[in-house]
Design goal:
The protein has 202 residues and is mainly α. 76% of the residues lie in helices and 5% in strands. The chain starts with 5 loop residues before the first helix and ends in a 6-residue tail after the last strand. Keywords: Membrane, Transmembrane, Transmembrane helix.
Length: 202
C-alpha cells in the first residue's frame, strides 16, 4: 500500500488540521501579548514604527489580493483566484512574522487621550471590530484555504469551500481594512503613547 502524501493527509483531515493550526496561532498571539514568550529580541520604538508601516503595506496588499481573488472567482477564472488567495495567505503569514516580534520585542502603541471624543470612540469601535474579526476569522480562513489548497476545482464543488470562502474573504477584508484605517489614525492623523514589551531577550 502506497504511503499517503502530506497533501493527501491534510486533504483527508482538513478539519483537524484547521483546529491544530488555529490553536497554535491563538497560542502564539496570546503568549506574545501576555509576555509569556521571551523569544523576541528587543526592538526600539523606531523599529516598532518601521514594522508598523511595513505591516500596513502588507495588509493593504492582502486586501488587493483578496478583492482580486473574489472578482476572478465570480468570473470563473479559477487559476487566477487560486493564485490571488494563495498570495493573500502568504502575506498574512508575513504579517504575523512582523507583528509578533513587533509586539513581543518592541511594544504597543495607544492613541493619546487628547483626541476628540468622536474620533476616540470611532477608533476604539473600529479596533474592537478588527480584533474580534481577526480572532473569529482565523479558523474560517484556514479551513477555506486548506480546502482550496488540497482539492481540485471539481472536488471543491462537493465541499463547503464556496460558502465558507465567501464568509472568510468578506470578514478578512473588513478586518484588514479596519486595521489599516486604525493604523492611519494612530500613526498619521493623531498622536500615540508607546508601551514597551513586557519581556524581551537580553
Amino acid at each position: 500500500m502506497a504511503t499517503a502524501t502530506p497533501r493527501q493527509r491534510v486533504k483527508d483531515n482538513v478539519g483537524a488540521v484547521t483546529v491544530l493550526l488555529t490553536v497554535v496561532g491563538y497560542g502564539l498571539v496570546a503568549g506574545t501579548f501576555g509576555g509569556w514568550l521571551p523569544v523576541f529580541p528587543e526592538i526600539s520604538e523606531s523599529g516598532v514604527n518601521l514594522l508598523g508601516h511595513a505591516i500596513a503595506v502588507v495588509n493593504s496588499l492582502a486586501v488587493i489580493c483578496l478583492c482580486a481573488g473574489w472578482y476572478w472567482i465570480r468570473n470563473g477564472e479559477v487559476d487566477k483566484h487560486r493564485a490571488a488567495m494563495s498570495a493573500a495567505f502568504v502575506l498574512i503569514i508575513l504579517f504575523l512574522l512582523m507583528y509578533l516580534p513587533k509586539v513581543g520585542g518592541g511594544g504597543q502603541k495607544a492613541i493619546v487621550d487628547t483626541v476628540p471624543e468622536l474620533v476616540r470612540y470611532s477608533y476604539f469601535a473600529m479596533l474592537l471590530v478588527h480584533i474580534v474579526l481577526s480572532v473569529v476569522t482565523m479558523p474560517v480562513v484556514l479551513y477555506a484555504f486548506l480546502l482550496g489548497l488540497t482539492h481540485t476545482p471539481a472536488e471543491l464543488r462537493n465541499t463547503p469551500h464556496a460558502k465558507v470562502g465567501r464568509i472568510a474573504a468578506g470578514s478578512w477584508i473588513l478586518s484588514l481594512v479596519l486595521g489599516v484605517v486604525t493604523y492611519v489614525i494612530l500613526n498619521h492623523a493623531y498622536g500615540y503613547t508607546f508601551e514597551p514589551a513586557l519581556v524581551v531577550l537580553p
